[in-house]
Every structure is written in C-alpha cells, then in structure tokens.
C-alpha cells in the first residue's frame, strides 16, 4: 500500500489523542490518530481528510473509505451525538466520492462549546496499526483546514 496523507478537517491546534475526553479515542481503541482543538469561530466547514468514498455519515461524524481499503474517521466534537444534528449541516451523502479537502459538514464550535460539550475533533485511522502513522504537524501547531496532519504508511 502506498502512503495516504491525512489532512486536518478543521482549523485549530494539534493535540494528542490522549487529550480527547473520551476513552474510546484517548486509548486509541478504534485506531491511532491525532485530534484538533478547533478555532473558536462561528460557522466553519469540516473537510474530508483524504480522497475516497463517504462511508458512515452522521451530522457529527463521518468516515472516508480510501481506494486501497483504509478508512479515516472524523468526529466533530465529543458527545455531539446528543445534539441530534442541531447546528450541523451535512453537504454530502453516504456513498459519495469526495476529494481531499472537500467540504463535508458545516458546524459551529462556539455553539457546541455553549452547549457544554467538548469541541475537540479526533482524526483516526480506523483499524490502523500502532506506529503506522507519521505525524507531520506537531502537537501544539496551529493548522488550517486542509493542511497535512499525518501520513498513513502501513497497516
């Protein structure tokens, strides 16, 4: 398999997954990755981290399945499923092909924070092998949406 570059879905600060206030992500139960603490701005787009087909799709989370069988999960905030889609606009359909950096969702981290929920956004290589990701953007770096975060090289 060739390397897959994973882009930041939102603008913000790079954090380790261990900082995510949810054990499923913090303990890398679904796979390795990083998290982005998004800029606290009004409405912002959430973009596809890589090219592929939209697999799972919810107002608060989505997965992109790549042509070589990998899947990347983007979860927009934590416990945001409790908002039942309120404040989230979905711009794609399940099964739709997307390009890396293409708009998938729009949301407001300000509104999510006002609802008392964490705004951090995990980006996870689903079922990825430990050590299969090379971190390109360092923890603490500020990234823009569409900037390279990780390179998924194996597994």
Query: What percentage of residues falls in helices of 4 or more residues?
Result: under 10%
Q: How would you state the average pLDDT, rounded?
A: 96
CATH architecture grouping: Distorted Sandwich
Distance between the ends:
8 Å
User: Order of strands in the sheet with the most strands?
Assistant: 9-5-6-7-11-3-2-13
Percentage of β-strand residues: 35-45%
Number of helices: 2
CATH C-level: Mainly Beta
Return residue spans where pLDDT drops below 50 for at least 5 consecutive residues: none
Describe the structure.
The longest helix has 6 residues, at 109-114. This protein is mainly beta and 155 residues long. The protein is 6% helix and 39% strand. A hairpin with a 5-residue loop joins β6 (61-65) and β7. The chain is built from two helices and 14 strands; from the N terminus they run ββαββββββββαββββ. The mean pLDDT is 96. The chain has a single domain (4-152), classed as Glucose Permease (Domain IIA) (Distorted Sandwich), CATH 2.70.70.10. It has helices at residues 23-26, 109-114; strands at residues 4-7, 12-16, 33-38, 44-47, 52-58, 61-65, 71-75, 89-90, 97-98, 103-107, 121-125, 133-135, 142-143, 148-152. Strands 9-5-6-7-11-3-2-13 form an eight-stranded antiparallel sheet, with no helix packed on it. A three-stranded antiparallel sheet has the order 1-14-12, with no helix packed on it. The N and C termini lie close together (8 Å). Its main location: cytoplasm. Keywords: Kinase, Phosphotransferase system, Sugar transport, Transferase, Transport. This is PTS system, glucose subfamily, IIA subunit.
């Amino acid at each position: 398999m060739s390397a897959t570059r994973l882009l930041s879905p939102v603008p913000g600060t790079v954090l380790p997954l261990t900082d995510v206030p949810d054990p499923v992500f913090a303990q890398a139960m679904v796979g390795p990755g990083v998290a982005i603490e998004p800029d606290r701005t009004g409405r912002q787009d959430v973009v596809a981290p890589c090219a592929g087909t939209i697999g799972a799709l919810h107002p608060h989370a989505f997965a992109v399945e790549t042509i070589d069988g990998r899947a990347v999960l983007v979860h927009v905030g934590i416990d945001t499923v409790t908002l039942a889609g309120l404040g989230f606009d979905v711009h794609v359909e399940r099964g739709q092909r997307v390009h890396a950096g293409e708009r998938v969702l729009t949301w407001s981290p300000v509104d999510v924070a006002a609802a008392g929920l964490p705004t951090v956004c995990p980006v996870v290589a689903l079922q990825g092998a430990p050590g299969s990701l090379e971190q390109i953007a360092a923890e603490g770096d500020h990234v823009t949406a569409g900037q390279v975060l990780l390179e998924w090289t194996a597994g």
